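Exam review. A common question shows you a sequence with its structure tokens and asks you to describe the fold in words. Practice with the pair below. Do the first one on your own.
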Amino acid sequence: MTFRRLPLATRRQCLQSFGALTVASALGKTANASTLPEAKLLLGGTLASIPGQFGELAEGPISKGLGLDTPIQLQPDLGQDGVTAANLFDANEAPDGRTAIVVPGATLLASLTGDSRVHYDFGRWIPLMLARTATVVVGRIEMRRSFRMRIEGFFHNHSVRLAVSRASGPELSAMLGLTLLGMRPIPVPGFVSAEQALAALRDGTVDAVQISPCTMNIPLAEVLKSLPAGTAPLYQTGDISDIQAEQIPNFLEAYQQVRRKPPEGLLYQAWQGVSSSTDTAVTVALPMLTPPDVVMQWRKACALAVADSGMRHWAELRHFSLADGANAAPLLSRATPPLNATLALRRWIAINTPRWRSGQETRPL
């Protein structure tokens, strides 16, 4: 059999076509390798909780961003503080990128305070997205004086009854903050909602409350306008976008007005972690050692979720600010104080827990 030699131009065309097919095949294999066959969001709460609401809103955008053939699975938890879900996440989930966790700030706070149920380390997680909220501490003060004199007068080394859900609950941020500012707070437990706490402030049952706009059904501006007579905001933490709330001093400003110096020390470092945990409404994260290409894929998917109109509307109603990608990591780091500060926090809690149970004033270290 005689083989006829092809013209040079034809041979070049054949080689180019073969090369193009090879590159396309390689790209196809790479794309298929980076696409997860299935994925799951492990929710630190029921579908009605904040993590559950996030999961239902993010289901479509994240499924699209990950290139899933079927919608991402939502696995809710019966608990409300995310501790059970976080324990399962650290113990059972492989770092293959198939499972991301969605937990509230209570999960971070439980770890900081040394909750005996905690068997996870959120400091080892790879953050994908955070939703941040804010808190405002309101107290009964002398309204006829200037704002600076009110702040100084309120924090003048006397006891103050603070409405709390429980002694080591989210109001721990206000408990420790008021202690640092020179007060001797006494927790008054049993107030599960901001509305109940504000009613107790109005009735004189308590002297101070911590409110978070994300837990209330009315805008923060309306809450501040309708505060009980003789009360006013003392300081605020977190991310507040409300124009009226921006006029409230943050904790650092309030501290400098009272103490005439910037805050320092282990308990202040611990308060920064506690406050940041309290102001973190949602954390979305992957296990440590998840492959970088899979992490990048999840981050792109979370970016789609953040840009989704339904998600943004939900965040606006809840007074959340959303951060994804490289902006999420520093926010989670704020909730992780140095080890010696964490130990100081737990020692402070251990010293004061018996006092809180008997209705006594808080002691500093």
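Now try the second one, then compare your answer with the model answer below.
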Amino acid sequence: MRDLSRPRLLAAFLGLSAVGAVSHVVTDAGVMVPQLLLVAVVLTVTAARAYKPGDPPRRAWIWLACATWLAVVGETVNAALGPGLSTWLMAVSNAMWCASLLDARRKIVAGALVPPLARAWRWALAAAVLVGLAVAFEVAWALRHGSPAYPHLGGARLYHLGFVQLCDAVVLVAGVWLLGALHPLWGGAAARPFLLVTAAAGIFAASDLVPLFVDLPVPRPWIRALIVGGWSLLGVAGLAQLELRRAMFASTADLRASLRGLGPRP
């Protein structure tokens, strides 16, 4: 199988990050609609073209695409009308992201003889669980004392923030769990798109944990930079899946051409 084009994926990551950064500077309010719109389009194309109907991983990308479109609508409503309906839209978006990786693992692993997790992946899963517990601790502390990173939030909006952060932790743990099962079955290249999705979850979890170290010199723009990077990785994950599917089709075509060349001759 041909390797994925790392330069193209890196260029896509830098381009999406630039769109997110410019949007933040121009709007002066962190509105991420242009970047989210691009990511949503990429994930929609991935869900439509990377797999045939009925392929196990296809529904995971559909969930991801729907989650991103809800985030687009939520950010747009928030910019136009302020918090309210957008809070619920973003909460549902994060729940869909959780469902995507949990469903992917269930579908992909259900029909395969999955070996036990290798030691390295067991350590990685344990580390992800520890990060998830740290996020849960931060959420519990914030609900009791208020969020030091977002002191203006309270009531329902604070509970919404906690729900979003817990979703990020669940996605991180589910993603590492899925990767541990995928790696020995399909090889590193096939697992790479989901590796990028899991890396995005890790970045979002890191942004959630910043309040734990609020006394350190970590300015608020760094939190926004982490979020921009996380969404950029999600878009690159969709492009990586499209590249992987294209490479698989090319390899299949080359194999068929070789078999035709070995056929009986007159």
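Model answer, second protein: The longest helix spans residues 220-261. The helical segments are 6-27, 33-49, 58-81, 85-110, 119-145, 156-186, 188-209, 220-261. Full marks require stating both points clearly.
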